[in-house]
Amino acid sequence: MLKLFCTALVSLMLALDPSAASARDTKPQTVKKVKKAKAQKAVAAKPGRQRVKLVRRGTVVKGKRQLIYQNARRTAPVFIAMTAGDRAGLNQTRDALDLGSSVAFVIDQANNQVLFEKNAGVALPIASITKLMTGLIVVESGLNLDEVLTVTDADVDRHKFTSSRLRVGATMTRRDLLHIALMSSENRAAAALGRNYPGGIGAFVAAMNAKAHELGMTETRYVDSSGLSSQNVASARDLARLAVVAYGEPLLRQFSTDPKYAVDDGRRTMQYGNTNYLVASPDWNIGLQKTGFINEAGKCLLMQAVIQGRHVIMVFLDSKGRQTRTADAGRVKRWLETLTPTATAAAPPSPVYRPVSGTQGVTQGG
After folding, report:
1. Is the CATH number 3.40.710.10 carried by domain 98-336?
2. Which of 68, 280, 340, 344 is the least crowded, having the fewest Cβ atoms under 10 Å away?
3. pLDDT one-digit tens code per residue, 334-349
4. Which residue has the higher pLDDT, 164 or 364?
């Protein structure tokens, strides 16, 4: 009887004070929230991790049921493609300037004096640096730069499946196609330039290889006009030779270094920007440049610049990271600024074909 009375009394008290029951009911919820907050904080505290959605799961620990929080989904693994330079072991090479690029080559443009080199004789995929030779062939061909050409389905990239702002059916002058090919690395523009060469793209590629042979670019081979194929290969030494000659063409200097340019494709006007932001930097005096990137090549950069009154050519191949190639250019620039030039050019020098000795390179592709 007494037990029944006590039970009734407790029930009455709970009915008169609902806060106690509320506290009892909400306590598990509070604990759950605290656990979830701790789990989220632990995930966020890990470097490189973003806040993720957590889900609650039940588990049994030492015979007792517990709640844990896990990621709703796992982050997909990141696969970094190996470059041809990586496969050749060039990324293991160290240098005095601690460059991030596997390959580097710097010469004095006036006399071909080698100022700095690192794996400079090894032939590697050069990506869109190819377009500098494309530009040289177009300019030297004497073809009408004001002729209006049409972008066709044949110019669409079915090798790397890269996108393009140039629609099939777009029309523009050979001059404008050359401009955006050099400045913005527009692949369809480079393809259209090669296809509209007398004899077609086959004859154009043959002319590219013939020019490379003429310039003594013994480690160079071209198979297309855009650089999308990893079979377009060259050594940094060879590319320095090309840069010296290309610098002798005013149109190539202007088109490759314009910070931006607008073109009309027959339907609309499009604004293009330079793929190399250094051309707009007041800290640089750049007279010629070309960037490049495909997975097999890594990030690439070729530039002519005036540093402390000295005209220099610098080439960087197989760089990793978004700004490694430009950071390497900055390191070389600061290093050159500490040197006293042995020969200073007051005006842009003429092309020099003087042989530069080097080791035989190994062609990487595929």
Report:
1. yes
2. 340
3. 999 998 655 443 344 4
4. 164
